[in-house]
Here is the input.
Amino acid sequence: MSFSRVNTSSATLTKNRTEESISPTSGMCVTCIDGCVGMCEIGKSAYRGHEVIYPQPFGVITCAGEKKYPVDYSHFNIMGTAAGAYGIEADSDKAIFPAVNLEVVFGHDKGIKFKLPWLISGIGSTNIAKNNWEGLAIGSALAGTGLTIGENVVGMDPQSKFKNGNILDTVDLKRRVKLYRDYQRFGYGAIIVQANLEDTRLNVHEYAIEELGVECVELKWGQGAKDIGGEVKIKDLKKAQMLHDRGYIVLPDPYDSNVIEAFARGAFKEFERHSRVGMVTEESFAATIKRLRKAGAKYIFLKTGAYRPVDLARAIYFSSKYKLDLLTVDGAGGGTGMSPWRMMNEWGVPPVELHTLVYQYAKKLAAKKKYLPAIAVNGGFTFEDQIFKGLAMGAPFVKLIGMARAPIAAAMVGKTIGQTIDAQQVPVYVERFGNTKDEIFVTASELRHELGHKEFEQLPTGAIGLYTYYERLAQGLRQLMAGSRKFALKYMTRDDLAALTREAADVSGIQYIMDVDKKEAEKILK
Here is the structure.
């Protein structure tokens, strides 16, 4: 059984000439014929080379791997019960699903509160993020959840001003922070500024703390999509040279005269901007934490990726020892940027395995009475059942689920619907619900009542789309939790899940479905 697709994918805009007779090992057509123009990935690589490493078309897509892992969250089912209730009186008139409390409070001083147990955990300098930031920021703020401004935003901003390599002023980062804060309500949620190696060299965190009043900052060791630094493509020579001057790796060299001449004649149309990989040591990590606290950081987070288990152990240990407020662990296979396609599919520890290790390592430290930060897990979460499973898999240590592609999709759809409304060209599939914001978006009346008519009319439909998607997730999660009789997140346990296969049980430590409640059932039957 093959878990991977090779040599053809919509992500790389490639396909096989023979759609049925494909070699399962190489992904090549069984009969590779002389005279083919090269529709497959090998063929396209013969004339576009390294460009085919990355998903396309860049700038208007998000991507996730299509590899089928041996174990995933669909191999677990949620266990409900017909008796009792946790967190509420066992009374049928009181234990109703709207009564489920989804609020999360975390941080060393319990000073961060979210209305819903998830956050967007890092959307940075890509066009897809910038072009949808209004919807993402405003929708997240209205919903009372967290939003992370990802890496390289300052460095990519043409209007940023520097002196001696340090940031003095920036337009884009200020805009992103302000959009969120303008719609933040009742102290719920948080805007988080992330920094990678280049951001650290530009003193982005210090700027965010001291000039923008940001309370939550995040160090980035990596993500689940790739084990190298972030990448984007640049279509403008001057911008490529600007990024080179700011310390980024830009390929090919935008100052090479031969490269400039080739770009001018159209031999290639895009430069690549790459970030460097970090080199983690405890000494440098401790120094960074000390520096950020001295600069005034109130809360410090760490995000790590699908690296080797020893790196996860290091991340949890450092987060414990230096008393961080949140650790985010991102499983393999996802991505919102321009991660290399084969890397996205074939690199890293998959979500179920990685999240199981998170539980195991956190449990070891908890047994020693060590401090543990709140933990968030990422890895292709999109709907309420997956959110429930991720929280239960890591209970009681996992407090949040990290998402990116799904919220972006919701914001993009909301934005697109708004454009069709303005153009009076609402597609038939949507038009059956109406032709206005109030008719199409099911949360419109709620938002109009809460915000008032004037402020509601100013809301971008991307924000309404994200808010409405979150409303669906919240109600769905409440229903699942009520069925398990768990009326607050703190009551969720790994026993709320059952593994559907022996392999899933062996990997996760979750009981196999036929072993669940065996002793208790025998007692009743006796």
Observations:
- The longest helix spans residues 461-483.
- Residues 421 and 436 are 6 Å apart (CA to CA).
- Residues 10-53 form one domain.
- The two ends are 44 Å apart (CA to CA).
